[in-house]
Amino acid sequence: MTTKRKILIGLLVIVLAIIAIGAWLIRGNPADHSVDEVAGTEPLLTNPEAETFPTIAIAEPIGWKDDETPTAAEGLVVTRFAEGLEHPRVVYTLPNGDVLVTLTRAPANNTAGGIVGFIEEILYERAGSAGQSPEQLVLLRDVDGDGVAETRKVLRDDLATPSGIEWRDGKLYIANHDALLSFDYALGDDVVAGDATKLMDLPPAGSHWMRNIFMPPEGDVIYIAVGSASNIGEKGMEIEKGRAAIHEYNVESGKSRIYGTGMRNANGMAYNPWSEELWTTVNERDMLGSDMVPDYLTNVPIGVNYGWPWYYYKDNVDDRVEAPMPSTLPGYVRNPEFALGPHVAALGLVFTEEGSRMGTNFGNGAFIARHGSWNRKPPSGYDLVYVEFDDRGNPQGKPVEVLGGFLTGDGTTRGRPTWVDWAGDGALLMSDDTAGIIWRVIAPDAEPAAKPVAPVRKSLSPRRNLTGDPKGRFNQDFSREAKAAAAAKAAE
Question: Are 161 and 209 in contact (CB under 8 A)?
Answer without folding.
Answer: yes
